[in-house]
Amino acid sequence: MADARTKIAELDPVWSRILQEAEDAVQAEPLLGGLVHSSILHHATLERALAYRVSLKLASGEMSEQILREIADEGYNTDPALGAAARADIVAVYERDPACHRLLQPLLYFKGFQAVQAYRLGHWLWEQGRHDLAYFIQMRVSEVYGVDIHPAARIGRGIMIDHAHSIVVGETAVVGDNVSMLHSVTLGGTGKEDHDRHPKIGDGVLIGAGAKVLGNIEIGACTRIAAGSVVLENVPPKKTVAGVPARIVGEAGCSQPATSMDQLFLSKT
């Protein structure tokens, strides 16, 4: 057993740490034994655990857990990028969310992380041309987690969505790598225009709670968008924008705002 655990740690340090944290959690709180075993310790890989967790949460009278599990297993088996993105996301949550103290927390409890992984499966289905199944996943993610991400949207790795309530991401939106956003963020359109109509968010952007980014505009890398802002125009890289409508109020304040999660800025008076 020790040799097997050492091999897992060498090949997949994220999953190895989750397994150890799961065993510690059962020792500390035996009443959670059933949950932790069925969700984590019963599975050989993070991909299998994710397939179980997502299918369990999204199952309904309209589609069973077994069918959803088969879809998820197919996705993870077919596209290794899904598992790689999940690992980047779970590490991002651990590193950026001060309420996250263990890697197992997002997998078991955080709806932002779980919703993004379900979206990733929906996006995989969309790319396979299985649009109706992708729409079904979108619907269930919205109903279960309060997160509405169109399966055609393109989202990078290392994504952290804190609290995650009332997140909306439109069909033609693009989100880069290592982006952080808080609850009630909308990446939407400005009307009934068709085709490419949603924002393009650069790498390392921090989007504050309640911010609305609307239209086919570009938000430069490592920019900060203040809470409650309404962004309607392109934003250069490494700036801070705030207000309704949003205006540039200063520099980003650091090289990686999405990682530092620093949402304070000094106003110019």
From TrEMBL:
Similarity comment: Belongs to the transferase hexapeptide repeat family.
UniProt cross-references to SMART domains, sorted A to Z: SATase_N
Keyword set includes Hydrolase: no
GO annotation (BP), single: cysteine biosynthetic process from serine
EC annotation from Swiss-Prot or TrEMBL: 2.3.1.30
Statement: the UniProt record of this protein carries the keyword Amino-acid biosynthesis: yes
InterPro entries: Hexapep, Hexapep_transf_CS, LbH_SAT, Ser_AcTrfase_N, Ser_AcTrfase_N_sf, Ser_O-AcTrfase, Serine_acetyltransferase, Trimer_LpxA-like_sf
GO molecular function: serine O-acetyltransferase activity
Pfam families in alphabetical order: Hexapep, SATase_N
The protein's name in its UniProt record: Serine acetyltransferase
Residue intervals of the Serine acetyltransferase N-terminal domain: 14-118
Metabolic or biological pathway, per its Swiss-Prot or TrEMBL entry: Amino-acid biosynthesis; L-cysteine biosynthesis; L-cysteine from L-serine: step 1/2
Gene Ontology cellular-component annotations: cytoplasm
